[in-house]
Amino acid sequence: MTIRSALMALLIAAAAAASAWQSTAPAQVLRPDLSKTKSSDGLRIIFREVVAAADKSTVSVMGDVAKDKTAQVALGTVVAADGYILTKASEVLGRDVLQVMIAGKPVPAKVVGVSEPQDLAMLKIDAAGLQPVSWADLKSEKVEVGEWVASAGAAPPGAAGDEPIAVGVVSVGRRKIAGRNGFLGVQLAPAEGAGAKILQVIPDSSAEKAGLRVDDVITAVNGKEVKDTEALINAMHEYRPGDVVTLSVKRGKEAMLLKASLGANAGGTSSRFNMMNLMGGPTSKRSSDFTAVFQHDTVLRPADCGGPLVDLGGKVIGINIARAGRTETYALPADIIVPLIEPLKNGKLAPVNANTPGPLKAGEKATTMPGHGE
Fold this sequence. Notes:
- The chain is elongated and about 65 Å long.
- It has helices spanning 3-24, 34-37, 41-46, 48-55, 89-92, 206-210, 229-236, 272-279, 334-346, and strands spanning 58-66, 69-80, 84-88, 98-102, 105-115, 120-125, 148-151, 166-177, 186-188, 196-201, 217-221, 224-225, 244-251, 254-261, 290-296, 308-310, 316-325, 328-333, 364-366.
- The protein is of the alpha+beta class.
- A hairpin with a 4-residue loop joins strand 5 (105-115) and strand 6 (120-125).
- The protein contains nine helices and 19 strands.
- The strands form three sheets. Strands 9, 10, 11, 12, 13, 14 and 19 form a seven-stranded mixed sheet that branches.
- 43% of the residues are buried.
């Protein structure tokens, strides 16, 4: 019996058992939470062999999340034995510390390529003998709605493989996800001169977290001059939720640089939709504006995006690119990713890191806010 048929038999048996339980259970007993059931240890163990190969091609990507503190910010997918690794760009750009865990040890990583439309970054580390993923051929094998999928994780040092970090099914076929503008979360005063003066800072917004205050004047965004209020509004339209922007700010006679990670709306939690999603856990900094993704109901942390998604045959059908909602995770299809690998490696898609500020002007000083990068 093949792995695929054995898994199907086990899943059918599990579904039948669940159906029998529901038919005999008292009416007042609630149905099990499917999001928790699909992430249960029992179901993940069934998929252990399916993700074994992909686990060996999955690494933890570490970054600075606070002063003197690093943590996993994404997963990475190994695409070449000599140290090339794909990951989620919006989770790694702009960090002062970037490392990849190899054999339990942190190895410095450098971003050598970025595909901004796909939110993909190519990392390069000094390593050899890594195991690249085995991609599915999506030209001959389509990803179907209802198909079981598993998300690979980084296998512990010395382990042959481990359970998937989560299991689910494809819920929506390939489609485009429309983009949203990034929001800073300020109300601006009427123009009084050069720059855009802040009249109000919305609580729990990107602006408040960045350290902006009432009466601050924003004079530039990522080094581009802001002449007035309208110019700042237009500048914000160029960025998406999750983008980190460097703001040149005048506070009285003092000049400084502040970094802000833009939100999806001004307050972050103002709509019922966002509240429902937050109840299911945090979503990715960038969870929209993708030319082609398929959606599955696997429950992932944002820090678990960037790793491989496999089918029942163990082939990598895509890379998890965004946790978008309570039961929504997006994956970039393999046929979108594979043609980008060489351009990302050889510099044709070299990174233009908008998170890195230009030289300070006379009188300006750099200010790093606590918690930057979280």
